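Practice record 12: protein with manganese (II) ion.
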Amino acid sequence: MPTYNEAPNVVELVRRISAAVVGREAEIIFVDDSTDDTPDVVRAVAASSRLPIRLIHRAEKTGGLGGAVVEGFRAAQSDTCLVMDGDLQHPPEKIPEMLDRLARADADVVVASRYAGGGTAHGLADRTRVLVSKTSTAVTKAMFPVRLRDVTDPMTGFFAVDRRAIDLATLRPQGFKILLEILARKSLRITEVPFDFADRHAGESKASFLQGGHFIAQLAALRFGKMSLFAVVGGLGAVANLFVVWALTAVGVNYVIAAVIAAELTIVGNFLLIERFVFHDMRHAASTFWWRFAKSFGFNNAEALIRIPIMALMVETWHISSVIATGITLVVAFLVRFVFHSLVVYAPRRTGARPSAARHILEEIDEQAMQPGEI
Ligand code: GDD
Ligand code: MN
């Protein structure tokens, strides 16, 4: 159970879960990132509970909700793991049916679905959230037509899974959509049971725009792999770059000066985006933020220094427009930039032995370019 500030829900949650799993061997693991008194409440309840209750209070909330779930998988006594929210939107009374379904051993994952026959989503706060939920579900299913063909609700946070069927090391949990991460990474046998998504018992939802951002990045990372995500960021940067060049030349700025201004703005913006969305999983092992920024900024400026004269040459000799010349040179620069960032900017800090051979470098490029996607 991932929890973030769910203190007023814990007692009722444990009561209903305990009643639901009577006669079964089970434990509850709270993986908690709270800033309120949730840990104290959990400890108090654990002291008098028939069910064993464990509390993992994390110092760093790595991966948010999804990271907490993976940590719970690692800590669990049993291979059969059931994930649910800590706010009673997921009715504990559904647990026996889910466990029994998984025990039949013809599925690796049992998904409790709001959208399967008989399920409802009335606990979604308002019409906007219903629309966001339905649209993102449809888009996601369209992006993974094979892996998600048997799931109506890949976004649910209520599911049971046989831990042995998933490869925990390949998961890159970031934010809320941990089930999607599990289902998209590996082909699994999935079955669904419908459920009623209830109103929150107490407290408020932690969903946010930031979670929306994580979700889009997660979709892109799962679908296209790291190199393509880098390309998406580069593409956004290129559009921004073209726009600035166009806007400045339109008001009479010389195209070379316009290109320099556009390049600097794009360099900083791109760096912040790839920090956040492309290489976030490599930041911890890499050098410090400012050192990474220096390397990225240095490289991109050197690249721009080379690119802009080439672009000027193209404009002067081929008489093509400065916008098209910028576009062509940006595309050519893309590959070099990806390789430099994955091998130099986000290289792990050195620990003794120097990686040497050209073969090792090729393997690294391959490794980065082929980060998990789906065929
Ligand atoms: N450990 C930890 N760390 N738990 C977290 C964090 C975090 O950073 N953020 C949220 N949680 C916990 C909450 O305490 C709650 O138990 C659960 O994760 C779900 O969070 P809610 O704040 O209740 O989110 P929601 O109701 O908007 O989202 C639910 O519906 C989504 C589908 O619409 C969840 O079930 C999601 O998993 C689900 O995708
Ligand atoms: Mn909730």
